Amino acid sequence: MYKVKVFVTLKESVLDPQGSAVKSSLHRMAYHEVSDVRIGKYLELTIDGPAESLDHRIQEMCHKLLSNPVIEDYRYEVEEVVAL
């Protein structure tokens, strides 16, 4: 069994109005040290299956459903879960 952590973010070339709004709010709250904010998604998947096809299957899921490849990038981390 594997725990997969997926991080989805807007591509650098895509404007992030939600991030801009959060940055403005932080500045109004006197957090002037914040120079940029980008908003993204974090997902955790628990997957049962063979290790040899895991990377391919995760990439397929990210590309087809979990991210929008036109405007978003993704990365993921895989951790093996040991049964107790």
UniProtKB/TrEMBL annotation:
Protein name, as recorded: Phosphoribosylformylglycinamidine synthase subunit PurS
GO terms under biological process: 'de novo' IMP biosynthetic process
Catalytic activity: N(2)-formyl-N(1)-(5-phospho-beta-D-ribosyl)glycinamide + L-glutamine + ATP + H2O = 2-formamido-N(1)-(5-O-phospho-beta-D-ribosyl)acetamidine + L-glutamate + ADP + phosphate + H(+)
Pathway noted in the entry: Purine metabolism; IMP biosynthesis via de novo pathway; 5-amino-1-(5-phospho-D-ribosyl)imidazole from N(2)-formyl-N(1)-(5-phospho-D-ribosyl)glycinamide: step 1/2
NCBIfam families referenced in this protein's UniProt entry, alphabetically: phosphoribosylformylglycinamidine synthase subunit PurS, PRK05974.1
Annotated GO CC locations: cytoplasm
Compartments in which it is found: Cytoplasm
Leading EC class: ligase
InterPro entries documented for this protein: PurS, PurS-like_sf
UniProt family annotation: Belongs to the PurS family.
A molecular function GO annotation: ATP binding
Top-level division of the source organism's lineage: Bacteria
Primary localisation category: cytoplasm
Species, as recorded: Fictibacillus macauensis ZFHKF-1
Any single Pfam family the record assigns to this protein: PurS
Function summary: Part of the phosphoribosylformylglycinamidine synthase complex involved in the purines biosynthetic pathway. Catalyzes the ATP-dependent conversion of formylglycinamide ribonucleotide (FGAR) and glutamine to yield formylglycinamidine ribonucleotide (FGAM) and glutamate. The FGAM synthase complex is composed of three subunits. PurQ produces an ammonia molecule by converting glutamine to glutamate. PurL transfers the ammonia molecule to FGAR to form FGAM in an ATP-dependent manner.
Summary of subunit composition and partner proteins: Part of the FGAM synthase complex composed of 1 PurL, 1 PurQ and 2 PurS subunits.
EC numbers: 6.3.5.3
UniProt keyword list: ATP-binding, Cytoplasm, Ligase, Nucleotide-binding, Purine biosynthesis
